């Protein structure tokens, strides 16, 4: 066995929304039970570790954000290792295992992890454990749990090999000089024996863990006949199974109420991404009719008094609060209704068993309780299994306790996916479903993630409207259902809609509608530039845009910018422009009828529209969806992409639109090039690589 001093491994995480950090913390917590110690750091904390001199095994957990980029916390690290002057043996000493997190709904699945993995390999680093790629589309735990299970034996093997390498250098030298193979055989036998001991030790630890959990488990309640499983009710085999539940996460936060008063922190202090700007909303227009299935709003912001700069195609983030009614509801459940305006001090619990514990960066050291629940914590977050495990200890009803254990256990993995993850059950829903669960305030701070700012595409051009920034969004609706007792609106879209209600004007169909009001409504924003989703640098290059519904948003900015360039540079050559737009009903949700103005003045060369829910009396039914319309112009698509080396932009829903558009483009390339589908897919991949087939999509 390895000596105790050599049980350390370096654990790095790169997170955008907290998933990778939570998984790294789970690894760190489990390490102790296997006799190992994780030296855990955010990958951005490059002053606390040094891969150039690191000799112990390294474990990396990294997510993916945007259109396949590493998370913000990994940008400096990635830039550093992508230095082209680094030699191919720069990390030849390094042993690592990598777990990538992603969502196969998006084109560049786990690309953040793949980018780091590929570059480390190019620089000579070696895997001591196979790379894991976890898919949030089907459930991260399907890969994460078995990957962590296998990690411990791999780590111990790596540490043992390292010990042998360091401790046997003299023996190896002697063996080499004498050309004797006998000591080599002895070494391999010893190593094999020790690895076998490690395997037996790990299996014994796992079996003991299962036994202790079985003894502690609540006795299953016999299910009613013909009953169906639900969020609060299980059926065999889960209801009759002994359960493997996660280890109870150690508490590490202490919350102290204070009698003093003061002011809450400024919202800008909650944001680590850069400079924030508080800007007035100067116009609000409802773009859809009252009887439209979705309600779309356009907001105009005045940024003239700021240094906020953007290009058409960029995105920006809105800092939004939780719904005040939901905050009050949560305070009531916690029994703290009278203390919402009291100041609290949040600090690390003295004597906590959590290694490296620190106050979460998004939680102020001192503020009112209501401020934390309103601006800091994502109370709509889908609870992770570690949170469910902690909630078990706060639940008094035996049946509810057992069900929470099932939902966080391996045996209940499919129930967790079906009734919590896929049903979008949030923390509040869970508290309604399990009324005897009364968590402490510190558990919420420990387990609920940071309330994320919401990202929106810019729908304007600073050249066309100096000092203005416009954006468009649908008000997201979550209808009531079995697992959600009340209907809810999206956290940010619902808040914005309520905020700008006084600005909304009765006339709701065009961009030119005046919706000004004397009242000043302000929101806080910060930029999130897009590195690639921009107009071609050469204005003579043709491009095609596909943007049904609110996916048209960035293309309004594109066309405004192009129109202004045409006015300012009459001697320039401009390539043709195509726009494919679709919505349900022409008279209810045709968001921007001013598109015909762009068509009339020549800014837009071709406008192709479709309406999926409108009936038609034509002999040949018109196409319903943008992907169907695109197929009608196959020769033009092929010409623009292949012959004229143009650009193709897609914005909108990925699953129900962008994938269909990609399939249509592949079919077009296959048909027009007289090539098989595989060859056409390779061409499309090449276009993506050249940044000429660009997507800004969401699921």
UniProtKB/TrEMBL annotation:
Question: What does the entry list under GO cellular component?
Answer: cytosol
PROSITE patterns reported for this sequence: FAD_FR, FLAVODOXIN_LIKE
Q: Where in the cell is it found?
A: Cytoplasm
Annotated Gene Ontology MF terms?
[methionine synthase] reductase (NADPH) activity; flavin adenine dinucleotide binding; FMN binding
Asked whether the keyword Membrane is assigned, the reply is no
Q: Which UniProt keywords apply?
A: Amino-acid biosynthesis, Cytoplasm, FAD, Flavoprotein, FMN, Methionine biosynthesis, NADP, Oxidoreductase, Phosphoprotein, S-adenosyl-L-methionine
Needed cofactors: FMN; FAD
Presence of the UniProt keyword Amino-acid biosynthesis in the record = yes
- Enumerate the spans annotated as Flavodoxin-like domain: 9-152
Q: Which GO terms describe its biological process?
A: cobalamin metabolic process; folic acid metabolic process; homocysteine metabolic process; methionine biosynthetic process
**What InterPro entries does this protein's entry cite?**
CysJ-like_FAD-binding, FAD-bd_FR_type, Flavdoxin-like, Flavodoxin/NO_synth, Flavoprot_Pyr_Nucl_cyt_Rdtase, Flavoprotein-like_sf, FNR_nucleotide-bd, NADPH_Cyt_P450_Rdtase_alpha
Protein name in UniProt? Methionine synthase reductase
Q: Which gene encodes it?
A: Mtrr
């Amino acid at each position: 066995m390895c000596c105790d001093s050599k049980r350390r491994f370096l654990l790095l995480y790169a997170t955008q929304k907290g998933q990778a950090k939570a998984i790294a913390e789970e690894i760190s917590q489990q390490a102790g039970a296997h006799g190992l110690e994780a030296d855990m750091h955010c990958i951005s904390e490059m002053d606390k570790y040094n891969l150039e001199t690191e000799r112990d095994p390294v474990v990396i957990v990294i997510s993916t954000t945007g259109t396949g980029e590493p998370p913000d916390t990994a940008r400096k690290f990635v830039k550093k290792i992508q230095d082209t002057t680094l030699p191919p043996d720069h990390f030849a000493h390094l042993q690592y295992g990598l777990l990538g997190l992603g969502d196969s709904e998006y084109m560049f699945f786990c690309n953040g992890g793949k980018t780091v993995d590929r570059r480390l390999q190019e620089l000579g680093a070696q895997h001591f454990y196979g790379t894991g790629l976890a898919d949030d589309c089907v459930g991260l735990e399907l890969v994460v749990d078995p990957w962590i299970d296998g990690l411990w034996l791999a780590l111990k093997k790596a540490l043992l090999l390292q010990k042998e390498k360091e401790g046997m250098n003299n023996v190896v030298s002697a063996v080499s000089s004498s050309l004797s193979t006998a000591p080599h055989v002895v070494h391999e036998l010893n190593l094999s024996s020790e690895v076998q001991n490690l395997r037996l030790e790990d299996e014994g630890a796992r079996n003991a863990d299962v036994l202790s959990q079985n003894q502690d488990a609540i006795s299953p309640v016999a299910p009613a006949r013909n009953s169906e499983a639900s969020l609060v009710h299980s059926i065999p085999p889960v209801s009759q199974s002994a359960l493997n539940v996660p280890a109870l996460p150690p508490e590490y936060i202490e919350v102290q109420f204070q009698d003093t008063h003061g002011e809450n922190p400024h919202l800008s202090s909650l944001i680590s991404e850069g400079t924030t700007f508080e800007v007035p909303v100067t116009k609000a227009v409802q773009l859809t009719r009252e009887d439209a299935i979705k309600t779309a709003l356009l907001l105009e912001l005045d940024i003239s008094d700021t240094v906020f700069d953007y290009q058409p195609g960029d995105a920006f983030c809105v800092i939004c609060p939780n719904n005040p009614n939901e905050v009050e509801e949560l305070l009531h459940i916690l029994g703290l209704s009278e203390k919402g305006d009291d100041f609290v001090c949040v600090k690390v619990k003295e004597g906590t068993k959590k290694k490296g514990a620190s106050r979460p960066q998004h939680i102020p050291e001192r503020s009112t309780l209501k401020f934390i629940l309103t601006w800091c914590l994502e109370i709509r977050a889908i609870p992770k299994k570690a949170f469910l495990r902690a909630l078990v200890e706060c639940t008094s009803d035996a049946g509810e306790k057992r069900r929470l254990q099932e939902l966080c256990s391996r045996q209940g993995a499919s129930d967790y996916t079906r009734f919590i993850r896929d049903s979008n059950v949030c923390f509040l829903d869970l508290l309604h479903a399990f009324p005897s669960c009364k968590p402490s305030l510190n558990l919420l701070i420990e387990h609920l993630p940071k309330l994320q700012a919401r990202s929106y595409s810019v729908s304007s051009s600073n050249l066309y409207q100096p000092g203005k920034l416009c954006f468009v969004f649908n008000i997201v609706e979550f209808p009531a259902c079995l697992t959600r007792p009340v209907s809810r609106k999206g956290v940010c879209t619902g808040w914005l809609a309520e905020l700008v209600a006084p600005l909304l004007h009765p006339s709701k169909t065009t961009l030119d509608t005046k919706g000004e009001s004397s009242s000043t409504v302000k929101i806080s924003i910060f930029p999130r530039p897009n590195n690639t989703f921009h107009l071609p640098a050469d204005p003579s290059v043709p491009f095609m845009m596909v943007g049904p519904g609110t996916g048209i948003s960035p293309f309004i900015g594109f066309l405004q910018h192009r129109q202004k360039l045409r006015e300012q540079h009459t001697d320039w050559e401009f390539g043709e422009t195509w726009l494919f737009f679709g919505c349900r009903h022409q008279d209810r949700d045709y968001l921007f009828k001013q598109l015909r103005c762009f068509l009339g003045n020549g800014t837009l060369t071709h406008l192709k529209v479709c309406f999926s829910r409108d009936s038609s009396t034509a002999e040949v039914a018109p196409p319903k969806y943008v992907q169907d319309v695109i197929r009608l112009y196959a020769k033009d698509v092929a010409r623009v992409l292949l012959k004229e080396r143009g650009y193709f932009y897609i914005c909108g829903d990925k699953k129900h639109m962008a994938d269909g558009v990609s399939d249509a483009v592949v079919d077009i390339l296959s048909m027009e090039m007289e090539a098989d589908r595989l060859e056409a897919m390779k061409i499309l991949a090449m276009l993506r690589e050249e940044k000429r087939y660009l997507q800004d999509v969401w699921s």
